[in-house]
Amino acid sequence: MFSFISATNSSAGSRILIVQSSGIYERSEADLAFCTTNSKKQVPENVKLIFEIKMSVISNYKYESGKIKFIGDYKTHKGNPFLLRSDSMLKAIGKSINIRVSGISSSNIPIIVIGNSPITENYSHKVDFLKNSGVVQGFWSLNPRPTSISFIEKTDGNGFLTIKNLSLLKQQTKEVLEGKLNYFSSMIPKKKLGEFINVSSKESYDEQKAEKFLNLIRGLV
Fold first, then answer.
1. pTM for the model
2. What SS3 class is residue 27?
3. What are residue 27's phi and psi, to 5 degrees?
4. pLDDT at position 143, please?
C-alpha cells in the first residue's frame, strides 16, 4: 500500500515535518507516519496516517544476585505514565488540533495517539468525544497487560483501546486507512446550517452531497 513508512526516534530534529503546498513549514511534527513518498519532509497529500507516540516506563525491575526481579508496575511509581498524565494528554490533543487547523489538506490526515498504559477514568468521556468529533481517531495502548489489577481496557465509544495482539493492531489500522475520513468543524446558526443541508441535498449522489456540504462549511463556494 505504501512505498515507505516514515519512522523517527524521539529527537525533534529527526521527526517528519508536514509542509503545506505553499512550501511554508508548519510546526506539525510526526513521531511516526505512513507516507506514499520516502522523505522526512512531506506534503499533506502524501501523509496517510500519523501516530503520536507517548511511551513510558510501566514496570520496574532490579538485578540482584544474578537474577532480574520485578519490583512493581506503574501503580507503585511516584510519577505516572504519559497517558495517565493530564499534561501529556493535553499536549497530544493540542498537536492534533494544530494539524487540523493547518489547512484543508492536512485536516483530513488521521491521527492516532499511541501509548503503553491505560488512561484515567476522568478522560474516558473526553477521548470518546475527541474521536467522535474527529480531532483524534483514537488513543491506543500497545501494552495488553500493564498491571495485574483492574484497569480501563477500552472506552464505550472506542476512543481508547488496548491493543491485545498484532491482528487487532492491523485491523484497527486498516479501518482507519480505508475510512477516507473528512474532518470538518464549524460554529454557525441553525438557519445557515439548514440552508447548507438544503443546497447539498440537491446534488445527485451521496459523495457529491457530502463534498458540497463540506465546501459550504469551509466557505469554499
1. 0.80
2. strand
3. -80, 55
4. 92
The vertex-57 CA angle with 54 and 60, nearest 5°, equals: 170
| Long-range CB contact pairs, 19-24, < 8 A, 24+ | 19/43, 20/44, 20/102, 20/103, 20/105, 20/106, 21/45, 21/103, 21/105
Yes or no: say if 79 and 153 are a contact pair by the CB < 8 Å rule. Answer: no
Torsion angles phi and psi, residue 112, rounded to 5: -120, 130
Mean pLDDT of 115-143: 92
Separation CA 162–CA 146 (nearest Å): 10
pLDDT at residue 112 tops 90: yes
Task: Quote the DSSP letter at residue 133.
Answer: H
Joined together, the cell numbers standing for residue 108 give 483530513
